[in-house]
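User: My collaborator sent over this chain with a note saying "see what the structure looks like." That's all I know about it. Can you take a look?
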Amino acid sequence: MTPDERFEQAKMFVKFDNKYQKGQQFIIDNQDKVCGRYYCARGYFLEALAIYDHFGIEYCNDKDGKTEYVSAYPIIKKYIETDPKKAVEIWAWALNEFGSYYDYDFLPYHDDYTLNLLDEQLNLNIVEKFHKWGDAFLNEVVNECDNSNKFLSMIIKYGTDNYDIIYVLAPAIHDKKYLLCKAIIDAVNKLDTKDETKREYIEQILKRTSLLLAKYECLEDFDFLIDTLIPDAVKKFNIENENITPFANQRKQKLKAKFDAIEKKKQYELKRKEAAKKN
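Assistant: Without extra context I'll predict from the sequence alone. Here is the result:
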């Protein structure tokens, strides 16, 4: 059924008392919006179909050959592996056009469990696998977070409990997107939870980020973390710092020792070659 056909069907059935009447009225009221054109009055959005139509991409089939019309996740997952920039573009577009299931109070189901489950089918499924996706995809996520507060808020919502947000914070530090780094910590502090819990989140995020930064082998990254980001967070959010900075400094010193050892070996080889020439 096309969006126009769903619209005409909604106009027909909304006149009669039925349990889908609010959804039918939503389709009529939002005929010119993506969320209205791709809403099925029985209670779900055809996000995948909307993506196929908007981006002009091939339909995504499961292992049994069945085409996915509802969930955007299989489409985005496919592009994460083949075209990371397109994956994030689709993800951000779906977020902007459909938002959260919590935004729609007319849905036939409106309990927290169901609404949260529907939102998590897309967002949490991707965020909780940040550690598995490659740097190319994570860099695109960083760029989108830098450009969209809505996208950043979603990443914070689903990426804080298990500290998956570090896979955004670390590359943001390495890319010198320092304002974004501060915005990430600020956003964690705005989560709707106890202050003590938020302080624990921030402490762990900063410590775990220092571990992740080591892969970039850049002392400048540690300088920003230790000299700017950690002190700012400690001061603004009243966080104990007896473990955070010392922990990050240990990681920095370990990296510096590696560089020193490489340089020492390089100088030794240079002197050895010079000595060999003289002989």
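A starting point for your reply to your collaborator: The chain has a mean pLDDT of 92.
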